[in-house]
Amino acid sequence: MNILVCLKQVPDTQKVKIDPERNTLIRKGVPSITNPLDESALELALEVRSITGGKITVLTMGIPDSEEILRDGLSLGADGAYLLTHRDFAGADTLATSYTLSMAIKELGGFDLLLFGKQAIDGDTAQVGPEVAGHLGIPVVTFVTNVQKTAKDIIVVERMIENGKEIVEAEYPVLLTVVKAAQRLRIPTLEGMIKSFDIPVHRLGVQDIGADSSRCGLKGSPTRVKKIFSPKMNSKVKFIEGSIDEKAKKFISIVRGI
Amino acid sequence: MEEHKSGIYDVTPQSDGMKVVHGEETIRRDYSDYLKDESNIEGENVQSLFFPRTINNIAWIMNEACGNRKKVTVSGGRTGICAGAVPGAGGYLLSLEKMARILGVEISSGEYSLKAECGIRLSELSSRVKSKDFGIESVVPTEISRSRTSYFYPPDPTETTATLGGTVATNASGARTLFYGPTRNYVVGIEVILSTGELLKLKRGEVPAENGFFRVQKERGRPLIIPTPSYEMPKTKHSAGLYSKKSMDLIDLFIGSEGILGIIVNVTIRLIEEPHRFFGGVVFFQEEYYAVDFVYRVRKGMARPLAVEYFDKDALALLEGTRKSQGPVSEIPEIPVCSAAVYFESAVFRDEKPEGDNLKAEFLKWKKLIEEAGGDPQSAWAVLNKRDMMRLKALRHAVPESVNKIIAQKKLKDGRIHKVGTDIAVPDEHLKEIMKFYRELLEAERIASVIFGHIGNNHLHVNMIPDNYDELVRAKELYRRFAGKAVSLGGTVSAEHGIGKLKKDYLAILYPQNAIDEMKAIKDTIDPLNILNPGNVI
Amino acid sequence: MEYKNIWVLVEKQNEGIHPVVFELLSKGRSLKEALGERLIAVFFGKLKDRDKAELERYGAEEILAIHIDEGMDENHELLAELACMAVEEERPQIILAGATINGRTLMPLIAVQLKTGLTADCTELRIDKDREILLQTRPAFGGNIMATIECADSKPQMATVRPHVFKMKKTRDPVKAKVKSKRYSPVMRRTVRVLETIAQEEKMDITRTDIIVSGGRGLGKADGFELIGELSRKLGGMVGASRGAVDLGWISHAHQVGQTGRTVSPKLYVACGISGAVQHLAGMKGSETIIAINEDPDATIFEAADYGIVGDLYDIIPRILKEMESSGRA
Predict the structure, then answer these.
(1) Where is average pLDDT lowest: A225-234, A248-257, B444-453, C232-241?
(2) Is residue B481, in this structure, part of any structural domain at all?
(3) Is this complex scored with an ipTM above 0.95?
(4) Domain extents for chain C?
(5) Domain containing A114: what range?
């Protein structure tokens, strides 16, 4: 089984602040981590591989520093790692990101199972997984909670639906987006950690994956962020005054506004 | 930072903006959290609970206390486990949680220091230091704000919600104390409100012991003369009773004094450069003996341990048992079958290249030690990223937490039952002997227990979990025997938890009466009315 | 042909239509007025009279009924294929769908095929009248940041919106919607098969809910959690608790929020009778909106809260429950 896991480096907090002068996010001093749901995807990949055998490749797109999360993947037992990093990739929205990832995936070739975290804790879009599947023209199963069965030609997974779950069977290649797993990501073994330092992280640019640079990064992004702002104008608590009735009514109106 | 000259100053008493709650019943009903700490001991009723916001507030409270002959108990994060912050008598209770600002940062002769109010939590402090975001009230020198170097404050007590003032008052330790030493080593200045309401400013190096006395100038009037202690402390990690050393500094008398000499209101700490990269791991051993042997090998070997921590098989079983209750253990993969586990932490330092080769070389050193000690690098865990480090930290924290949960249930059966947890350390060469002693006695008495903690410092916590009152009595007797043994080996009865209100009996095992009398004499000089933190230490 | 009109994709729920569709139609009415265009519901499968009437009631002026074979209406690849074929023909300016699990799977597949932008989980939609484009506002970083996004040079403009974001409002002057039936024969691509569907009660996991109502020691008694439970049920959420309440044995540890319990970041966190120990705050400060109810105006919990109600929770919560009953769904 040839498995791909896509990882994203994200800030280790959701409490980010906006620089009021430049209207950009303040990233200084905020450490980076692997997106937690991507870790679930990686854990799932490791479980599948322990049954089926085969190889796991980890892939990310980001700044050179994103190599760290690939290294973490290698220490857990991934067999290969690729980092898409190039100035033309910067500023990508989900369409451009998924295009770039899909071009890399085509270039690397031969994956049976492609695993993504359902969404990242910074963008919260949950779009990149399905969009990559769209670019590749392969089926996608979203909101996967676990793998029930793997066989030579098919995989059976459980996924969430609005009010319950469903069991889905798919042939390879298939792309899964993974929600928080019951089993937490394992911890690397000392042996695995030591081995991982000998595995290179390959860097890929626009030419390496045969991508059309006008479809990558900011140039390839149909959406534009026009403005960012804090939802709370001040961090001060707003006290609800008045009679018990008024307080109850106001409570309900706040809850409805959410 | 403000001018900082050692001496005693008058403070104008004021009471503006301070919250006060009056009434024993009201406090017991609505503020019961403030009457206990992590020891789970319920304190005495107090008449007033104060939340001071300024030094002036505290000076005013102390004046009131002196005038009305009220006892004063001081509390910070209430994370202590010897009931130091629990009211030992009625009177006033002060929670310093509202005094949590950073007052300034500076660099002088290459040393980076930070001054903060006592109530700041260590978690808040460390994240502010990390992000160099000190709040609007302080001007940050450009050498700090522009520099790419990251700094940190090394003391790492398990409870990160502890306050800075509390950790200074108790000279708190953590896992990394093995390498970095306790809180004391990082305190360069303190400001203390004395029982008289006067403010004592102390800077390290400015008030040394001379001819058996400390002499400290007052703003006006005659100087305060404090006798210096003369007893000898154990040569281990140690935090029991007042500090005593030849040619010591007055600041060290206050650090670790558990509040009996004054209220530490501001603290200036030294920050140091953070290593490039922390890393660590957990090794699982089939025999306890191998684990202890591993610790001896680590000391002699080439690896550089910052922390070496122990989990015995009962501690591991306890952790697995709490997995289902979705605590922090649920964040951890299944623990391999074994009889003992050792957590280690190390780092690649600033002057070394952070590249993979270097890290690999460091991990290889550990691998060699593990193999020599009969451990298995295939099953050992290795952690390099922050999140995994945090997961293992949570795992260590979960042991005492889980014990407390079990004790709480036993308490329902018999209210007299409480945890009997030791805090004993011995010199390096006696680790094997004390370990053997613990095992023999615990097996002979058949009392459920877990052993965990700072094995690198020969400082293991034996937590006994009595099932009934009879076992409680026997457990306490065991504790006394453990303490006696440790003292006979040149060890201490309390390496980090302090004495508080619960461990005074053990202080008497450690020190002869004349040492305790010296402590009392010091207390009488500084707090003649015996107002501050009644019941602590002596 | 020019891109024109607003589409709302109709998602089914049980035998009827998912309420989010009516919320989107309600919002869609104001958007289409700003643009001077038409509001169109896109329905996959056999349109029943009842469905049609309901869509009309919320302002659909036209219904595009796209044929799909029986039992295939949860096949996302096929739905996307059909939707794209319809877009090629009809050229909508805007496509909206619910940010449900289905919507969040289907919409990206459509967007990729059309090579256009998609904005997920919008909380506000507005028309920039001068440029005739859709301004889409959405939270990121778990709601700590809001971003306004536009897709000016690419059509259609696509967005998903979570249930309960927009109010459901019937139109005062419903029109008879013209039904346009479509039948396409897409090349069937390889897809997945649903083997089994299991409706189930979610296992209690407070990290997986959007709404948490938590109780603390301030409840004063174990029974207090009955009231907390009732409020959380009414809001469609779960019950949380502080360590104090758990330690007292009032509720099981599975409910505990905080450093030794679970870390949660729901959209709404209601803290009742919780003083706000830092350990608790550490576990819930990532919540999008925090409402605290406490008798003590100085309780630390108010420092973390967005809204504070000072008062006795035994007065306030029953009043909230009563008020919710008399005014319908919250």
Answers:
(1) A225-234
(2) yes
(3) no
(4) 6-182, 206-327
(5) 2-225
- Chain A: give the shortest CA distance to residue B19, in Å: 19
B347: closest CA of chain A, how far (Å): 15
- Distance between CA atoms of B104 and B112, rounded to whole angstroms? 11
Beta carbons of A240 and C309 less than 8 Å apart: yes
Residue numbers of the domain that contains B125: 103-273
Domain count, chain A: 1
Q: Is residue A244 part of a domain?
A: no
Mean pLDDT of B235-250: 95
pLDDT of residue B373: 96
Q: Is the dihedral angle over the CA atoms A231, A234, A235, A239 positive or is it negative? A: negative
pLDDT at C269: 95
Name the CATH superfamily housing domain C6-182. Answer: HUPs (3.40.50.620)
B326 and B373, same domain (yes or no): yes
Nearest CA in chain A to C297: A239
Q: What is the CATH number of the domain that holds A96?
A: 3.40.50.620
C263 to chain B, any CB pair closer than 8 A? The answer is no
Is the CB of residue B39 less than 8 Å from the CB of residue B85?
Answer: no
Q: What is the pTM of this model?
A: 0.82
Please name the chains neighbouring A, where neighbouring means 3+ C-beta pairs under 8 angstroms: B, C
Quick count: other Cβ atoms within 10 Å of Cβ C193? 13
Residue of A81, A67, A192, A73 whose CA lies nearest to B363: A192
Q: Does B341 touch chain A (CB under 8 A)?
A: no
- Is residue A236 included in any domain, yes or no? no
Q: Which residues of chain A neighbour C167 with C-beta distances below 8 Å?
A: 256
- Arithmetic mean of pLDDT, A2-6: 98
Interface contact A12-B387, CB threshold 8 A: yes
Confidence of residue A233 (pLDDT cuts 50, 70, 90): very low
Could you tell me if B353 lies within 8 Å of chain A, comparing CB atoms?
A: no
In terms of domains, do B233 and B337 share one?
no
Mean pLDDT computed over B174-203: 96
Region C13-30 average pLDDT: 92
Any A CB within 8 A of B145 CB: no
Between A240-244, B164-168, B275-279, C62-66, the lowest mean confidence (pLDDT) is in A240-244
Domain for residue A155, yes or no?
Answer: yes
